[in-house]
Amino acid sequence: MQRYFIGEEHWGHRKVTIYGEDLHHISRVMRMTSGDQLIGIHPEEGPALCKILNVTEDGAECAVLEWLEEDKELPIQVTIVAGLGKGDKLEHIVQKGTELGAFEFIPFQADRSVAKWDKKKVPKKIQRLQKIAKEASEQSERSHVPEVCTVHTLQQVSQLKDRYHWWLYAYENEARKKEHQSLATRLKLVRPGEKVIVIFGPEGGFSEKEVSHLEEKNFLSVRLGPRILRMETAPLYFLSSLSYVFEEER
Amino acid sequence: MQRYFIGEEHWGHRKVTIYGEDLHHISRVMRMTSGDQLIGIHPEEGPALCKILNVTEDGAECAVLEWLEEDKELPIQVTIVAGLGKGDKLEHIVQKGTELGAFEFIPFQADRSVAKWDKKKVPKKIQRLQKIAKEASEQSERSHVPEVCTVHTLQQVSQLKDRYHWWLYAYENEARKKEHQSLATRLKLVRPGEKVIVIFGPEGGFSEKEVSHLEEKNFLSVRLGPRILRMETAPLYFLSSLSYVFEEER
């Protein structure tokens, strides 16, 4: 069933009205009319089964039939920090990372980021990534849309530490070491309900200076299997493993 | 260090010669000359540290300095069967699936595949996917290049069953069920050294007919977390979880 994230201000007593792009999607793309059902997602209350009462150019009025009990959110809140990459790599990370349950994304300007974002264009780029996150949330049937934060420096990222229980970074050299730190050693410490921040470098990996900074700030390095993963594949490995451990193995 | 997969016929006694596209890459792209080192990968013996003795237009002659003991291959041989998808989805699956350790790929013409491949164009498309697999193997530092097989029908796929120890398919409806079959229940049965075949549907999922066929042939359905994944994300979840279980948790 089609799902729409609807701002808090549009919900009334067992009623909700849909406007804007979602209204266009309902009337023009899906061609839904009164009597048709959809799932409306309240930012706090979660998903509700709704029935369309009336569709006009001004809005789609729906009755709330039933609040649904769904459990599709990862029990760990994961913040993915990703170095700016070439082409559409960040878009891939946000789209697939959202499907895989990420809670939040922070792009960061790494020493070896070949891509540099023009300051004036940052708000537009973030807006576009935010739209991708919303669409991927709807498609993957989630009840939370991850926030895409503005571009940070590594220093700004490490200052956010206190908000999280665990601070990790994916260091490709771990994959090359015989005596590596396995991802399982780290994940075994994490408990449901906790918040994790994990940093991924750009195409060329972290600079030595960045690694020293992360070590100094007590970020823990993780290995993601013995193979060297591309920058856009590594966050997907991390999220998939976390989902496996907390949603499939338990 | 740069890695090249080199056909068996080009290896001599503690010597190897590199030709063709790889020679071009060595001389023109990397601008390597005598004395430079690279890793040559023998199809049976695996990776060897090599030193260039001489580069001409006819070939790059190298001395084998040392056979390397690397363990970068997943201990389970996974065959990924993926429905034909729109655009570059299959290319994504092959590229990222190779990074994540897949052993082999089989594209299949599913009932709901919107993409139809013109018969005449199949060999060229497979050749292109094979090239992507080779490049991804080099980049991720593997010692095996996954084979990309030609397009199969589902019937042809299920006839291959006897070659494998485990037969799975990723069924999106498992993600929507309360009483689902967890991926962990299935993976707990798999032992290192075994072969697994796992089938993924196209954008629209499997048809009812295909599901009946797979059930009849005793393929086991798996859930990949509670969220609905895109066709190109599902194989990456499967391979990442397998790597986590067999390479990080053990």
Structural write-up:
The structure is a homodimer. The first copy, chain A, is an alpha/beta fold. Chain A folds into 2 domains: about 5-65, Ribosomal Protein L25, Chain P (Beta Barrel); about 75-250, Alpha/beta knot, CATH 3.40.1280.10. Helices cover about 30% and strands about 25% of the residues of chain A. The first copy, chain A, has 8 helices and 12 strands. In chain A, strands 1-4-5-6-3-2 form a 6-stranded mixed β-sheet. A 6-stranded parallel β-sheet of chain A has the order 9-8-7-11-10-12. In chain A, β4 and β5 (about 45-55) form a beta hairpin. In chain A, α2 runs parallel beside α3. The radius of gyration of chain A is 20 Å and the shape is elongated. The model of chain A has no long low-confidence stretch (mean pLDDT about 95). At the A-B interface, α8 of A face α8 of B. Chains A, B: Keywords: Cytoplasm, Methyltransferase, rRNA processing, S-adenosyl-L-methionine, Transferase. Chains A, B: Its EC number is 2.1.1.193. Chains A, B: Pfam families: Methyltrans_RNA, PUA_4.
CATH superfamily of the largest domain in chain A: SPOUT methyltransferase, trefoil knot domain
Strand content of chain A: 15-25%
3D shape of chain A: elongated
Largest interface: A-B, 34 and 34 residues
Give the number of DSSP strands of chain A: 12
CATH class of the largest domain in chain A, please? Alpha Beta
